[in-house]
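Researcher: Next sequence.
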Amino acid sequence: MPARLWSPWTGKSWRRTSPSSPARASRYTRLFRVGRTARCFVCGSKAVAYVPYLGDYLCREHFVEYFERRVLETLKTFRLVEPGDRVAVAVSGGKDSLTTLYLLKKFSGELGIEVIGVAVDEGIAGYREYKLKALADLAERLGVRIFIGRFEDYFGLTLDEAVEVLKEKGFEYKPCSVCGVFRRYVMNKLARELGATKLATGHNLDDEVQVFIMNALKAHIEGVVREGIASATGGEGLVPRIKPLYFVTEKEVLTYTLLKGIQTPFVECPYIVYALRHPVRRWVNEVEDEAPGFKYRILAVKELARKALPEPPGGARKCVICGEPSSKPVCKACLFRAYLDPEFAAKLGGLKLISRLRDEDE
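Model: Next structure:
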C-alpha cells in the first residue's frame, strides 16, 4: 500500500499515488517519465516541475506554495528584514529581480515593510528598454513605485559609449567589470537617497555558485567572504544588501514566473560574451546535468569557506573624488570614469594622478 506523506507546508498528510525513486533514476527518466504522467508527490495531481531539493515532483499549487514558503522562511530565518524597513528592490526587469519585487510586495504586510523599486538604465540599446518595459508593467500591476538611475546622468556616458572606448583601448577592462561597478554605485546611492534601510537583489542560488567559482579562480578571498546572503553594515553611506532568492535555483525561479504570469522578454545583454561568468555558467549547468545536486553542494562549500576565512577589514572611507563610500582612497567608479572620459580625468589633475590612485587601489 502506498505510504502516507506529510506536507511541511500545509500540515496535512497525503497518500503517495505511485512509488517513485528519482534518486536512482536517470536524469532523462526523471525529467521525462516515459509512458506515464508525472504526479505531484503531495496530492497526486499532474506535476509541473521536478524539484531536486525535495527529490520529487510538485503540481502547480504545491510548487507555488513550496517556492513562496521557501523565500518567506529565508527572509524570516536569516532576519533579512525587520518591521519598519523600507526595502528598495534592485530591479532590472529580468525574471529574478521581478520575482523578488513580486514576493516582497506580497509579503510586505506580513513582514511589516515598505517596498519600492530602484532600476538602472545603463544605456544598452536593443536590450534595456525592453526590460524596463516589463518592469513598468509589473510595477503598475503591484502598485509599486519605481525610481530609475541612468549611467548618462551619473557618469556622463552610456554603457554602449563606454564599450566603444574599451574596444579602442584593447579591452584592458571588460564591459561587465565597468557595468558592475557603475551599477552598484548607482543602486546604492539612489537607494540611500530614497531613505531605504535595505537593498534587496535578485541573486539566486545559481548566481551565488557562479560568483563563488569565479572568485576562487581569481583567488579573490575577500570576495568569497563578502558574498553572503546579507551584507553587514559596511559603514556610513552603504545600504545593507539582502538576497531573498539565495536558496532557490534559476530553474525554480523561471518555473515560478511562468506559473504566476510574471513576464519578461527573453533578451540577453549583448556584452555577456565578454564575461567570465558565461563559460562558468555553462560548465556548472553541464556538471549539474551529470550530477544532480552539484549546485547545492557548491553552495554548502562556499558557506563553510566563508566561516573558516577571516573577516575582511570592516568600515568604509569616503572617496576623495565623489564622496561616496569606498574601501580605498578613490572608488572604482571614479577610476573607471577617469579611464573612460579624458575630460573627467583632466579635471582631476590628469591621468598620472589616476594611475597612481589605481595602483594604490590594486
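Model: Confidence is low (pLDDT under 50) at residues 1-35. Residues 175-193 form the longest helix (19 residues).
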